[in-house]
Amino acid sequence: MSGTELRESIQRKYGRTYDLSIVRRQLAGRPIVAMNVMWTHLEQQSFPMSETEYMDKLNNIAFYLGAWGQTEVVRAFFDAPAKSRNGLPGRRPVVGNAISLRLELPAAVIEEWFGR
């Protein structure tokens, strides 16, 4: 997976090149990692990154996803139709509500990459 593939996948699914972020959280006392499709996008005048910076970020995220063995999970997510889940947005991100894909990483991998 490459940053270009991620960008094309985001564009194909949502019609805009939304920002991505990787987050680590605690859920019921257990660590989880998720990839969030954020509500800001490259086409906005107020978007805080240049196209080069955006692509650098996507390339880094693609590297992490590959290192964690999650590329097929992410491809399947972007290939699936957009739909709402648990009352959260699905058709596209909206201000204040990202669309989240929980990555299935073992606790040891989360600790190695993110610490305790």
C-alpha termini separation = 28 Å
Largest sheet, in brief, is: 3 strands, antiparallel
Overall 3D form: globular
Low-confidence stretches: none
Mean pLDDT: 91
Give the CATH H-level superfamily.
Protein of unknown function DUF3067
Beta-strand segment tally: 3
Strand content: 15-25%
Question: What string, H for helix and E for strand, traces the elements in order?
Answer: HEEHHEH
What does this entry look like structurally?
- This is DUF2384 domain-containing protein.
- It comes from Elliptochloris bilobata.
- It holds the Pfam family DUF3067.
- InterPro entries: DUF3067.
- The protein has 116 residues and is of the alpha+beta class.
- The protein has one domain (3-114): 2-Layer Sandwich (HIT family, subunit A).
- Helices cover 40% and strands 23% of the residues.
- The chain has helices spanning 3-14, 51-67, 71-79, 107-114, and strands at residues 18-27, 30-41, 99-103.
- Strands 1-2-3 form a three-stranded antiparallel beta sheet.
- Strand 1 (18-27) and strand 2 (30-41) form a beta hairpin.
- Helix 1 (3-14) crosses helix 2 (51-67).
- The radius of gyration is 14 Å and the shape is globular.
- The mean pLDDT is 91.
